[in-house]
Amino acid sequence: MENLQYSIWQKPYENALTELDPLRVAERVAAAEAAIAMRMKQASGSSDGQDELRALKGAREALNTLKNLKRASAPRIQPTTSNTTFSVSSFQAESKSIVDLTFDETLINVWRQALVDDAKEIVLGTEKYTVRRTPQCKLREVDFVFAVKEIRGLEQNPDTKSQWATMARDGKKVMQFHSEGRYVANVVEGKVTFYGYWDK
């Protein structure tokens, strides 16, 4: 990820998430946790640092998930080459499924659980996010975190004049996603459309 918004801690955090060598994960996580802890201490005294504090807390939770995955995979590692290779592959697969889902995969996952399964909670890895109804139109919405950014998924209002509203009136399941004050993407019947604002 280029042009990191909070580069002083996001770079070591990104290094921890993308480390493929299980023997180096602990080192990467420790470095990221130290950078996050230091920055949290600095930002906690600032009245304009609330957005970054939320991002820091989300990053810390992701690192805890990564550490739990590492501990869960450790007993499977045996002192033979074949077993070690199997355990490394399993660890990487688990890390991918919980920590390193792509943005596309995450949006489709949220859309499916909220609109197709009509779930009351969205489950992303070990995290759960409550699905609410908007006060006036009773549309489903859910707030969740991806790559330390807060995202809101909102069921498309069928009573507007957009092409997406037309699709919703036609019975298609449409969810809009916005972050940092602007819409970034939508999912219609399992297909993602980006608006060009998200730094993937």
Strand content: 15-25%
Query: Overall 3D geometry?
Result: elongated
One letter per element, helices H and strands E, the order comes to HHHHHEEEEHEEE
- Major sheet details: 7 strands, antiparallel
Number of domains: 2
What does this 3D model show about the protein?
With 200 residues, the protein is an alpha+beta fold. It has two domains: 7-98, no CATH class; 103-194, no CATH class. The protein is built from six helices and seven strands. It has a seven-stranded antiparallel beta sheet with strand order 1-2-3-4-5-6-7.
Gist of the model:
This protein has helices at about 5-20, 20-45, 50-75, 80-100, 105-115, 165-170, and strands at about 120-125, 125-135, 140-145, 150-155, 175-180, 180-190, 190-195.
Topology (elements, then pairings):
Layout: H1 7-18, H2 22-43, H3 50-73, H4 81-98, H5 103-116, E1 121-124, E2 127-133, E3 140-146, E4 149-155, H6 163-169, E5 174-179, E6 182-188, E7 191-194
Antiparallel strand pairs: 1-2, 2-3, 3-4, 4-5, 5-6, 6-7
Please give a handful of descriptors for the protein shown.
2 domains, 200 residues, seven-stranded antiparallel sheet, 6 helices, alpha+beta
